[in-house]
Amino acid sequence: MPDQKSDGEDKSDASSPTAAFVEHRELLFSIVYSILGTVSDTEDVLQETWLAWDTRNQSVTGAEISHPRAYLVRIAVNTALARQAAVRSRRETYVAPWLPEPLVDETTRDSGVHTDGAVETTLRAESVSMALLVVLESLTPLERAVFVLHEVFGYGHAETAEILGRSHVSVRQLAHRAREHVEARRPRYAVEPRLRQQVTERFLAAAAGGDVQALLELLAPDVILVADGGGKAPAAGQYPILGQSKVARALAAGVGRFPGGLDIRHREVNGVPSAVFFRGDAPFAALSLDLSPDSGQISGIFLVSNPDKLAHVR
Known about the structure:
Elements: H1 17-36, H2 39-58, H3 68-92, E1 104-105, H4 119-126, H5 130-136, H6 141-152, H7 157-164, H8 168-185, H9 193-209, H10 212-218, E2 219-228, E3 241-242, H11 244-252, E4 263-269, E5 272-279, E6 282-291, E7 298-304
Parallel strand pairs: 2-7
Antiparallel strand pairs: 1-4, 2-3, 4-5, 5-6, 6-7
């Protein structure tokens, strides 16, 4: 599969099949990742998409593809849906609470704060947040695909129906069910990045110092702590921890039993200001917080320490 930054790419031929795939690769990755929640499976789907695209363009009998982006999105989405059964089967035997593989922005400065405060920009970033992806896990594969295409990436119902090979009416019904389900569990709202950064810093200080009172002030009454160690790294146990006092006590007690000497770097994880822990040059854990739209308190704590899910983090 061609790499987006390959030095060997012929940049003079912008209309070549390779150039067309590279042009749309970032979009394809974002859509497929939002459907599957794993980086490794997303890369596999993109590899299959490239092979199908290349084979189609090598065919001497096939007509010219007038809309490469639409064609590529259709291949990628349907390949992702075909992979869903295998992905879900792995999660059923997973030995810890399952969280998506975190997407870490390596270029984010340590301030972790954007200068662009536009609400729509922030909402788009939070559309792939850890909290939303966890909610999307409760949808059916088709509902999730429709939600991702329509609500996150702005495809119309007619376009979505064409991509999925479904009727316009069925897609509208799927979209309505998915949107109601998601909004009931996580209403769509924007949290200013600077506030996220400030809350994350206060949370890290309180947790590191075992300050129960400070944690109680930061945590919402219905907060949930989900720690995914995959049975291979320190975590909070086999089940999520629910409730303000239980989560505060668990954090103050050093849940996860992290070793000393970790380097905390402020990064964007799944589009929102978060923190990544490093031991030397190796990633140790990724922390992402979800905030309540009413109080600004922490309503969700998502910690990924499974080394398999951090292998791509630098």
